[in-house]
Amino acid sequence: MSFSAAKDDSGSDINIPRDIDWHMLDKTRFFFMGAALFSGVSTALYPMVVLKTRQQVSSAQYSCINMSSAIMRYEGIRGFYKGFGTSLMGTIPARALYMGSLEVTKTNVSNALVELGFSDTTSTAVASAAAGVASAMAAQLVWTPIDVVSQRLMVQGTGGSKTMLANLNSESYRMDLMLSENPLC
Are the CB atoms for 75 and 166 separated by under 8 Å? Predict the structure, then answer.
């Protein structure tokens, strides 16, 4: 179906706006659908983040295949999702803050620039850039501390002989972390 030829049930043309602004959105649906979709993507990609993080803290060279097979053997599928709950609970509000501040900033800056006499093209470009910067900064205030905690959970070993790879340099990592936070130790 072509949007240019769209008609409603009564046969009259449907006017589709060029841009969808913040005030046009169903915010409840926007945030719930966004959270659900983003959570699905996070669930699919999180095991790769765990592999990357463990490889970064490892002093030994392990391939992704060797590390992932060892995680599966010693920790099972749960090993690929260490820290996931923490990450998800922090990412959802950060994502909502990002999207909300992006749309509000974009609309307000664009309207202000149009009132100052700038063209639609210029105001849209400047508003999009300003909104991107402002929303990224706002979301990072929430997301960065949560990310630090979830990364620590990813490399934290649980003890015992079955978690040899899980403990892979976790003690060394903890010591390096303690020294970087308190150089007098």
Answer: yes
Tens-digit pLDDT profile for residues 63-121: 889 889 989 999 999 999 999 999 988 888 888 899 889 989 999 999 999 999 999 88
Q: How would you write 18-71 as a 3-class SS string? A: CCCCHHHCCHHHHHHHHHHHHHHHHHHHHHHHHHHHHHHHCCCCCCHHHHHHHH
DSSP H or E stretch at residue 96 = helix 84-115
Q: Which domains does the chain have, with CATH numbers?
A: 45-170 (1.50.40.10)
Say how many residues make up the chain: 185
Alpha-carbon span 171 to 152, nearest angstrom? 12
What is the 8-class DSSP label of residue 10?
T
DSSP H or E run through 98: helix 84-115
Question: With 0-12 CB in 10 A as exposed, 13-18 as middle and 19+ as buried, what is 7?
Answer: exposed
**Residue 131: alpha-carbon gap to chain centroid:** 17
In what helix (H) or strand (E) does residue 121 lie, and over which residues does it extend?
A: helix 120-155
Distance (Å) of CA 46 to CA 1, 22, 53: 37, 30, 11
* Closest C-alpha to 151, from 56, 77, 68: 56
Give the DSSP letter of residue 14: P
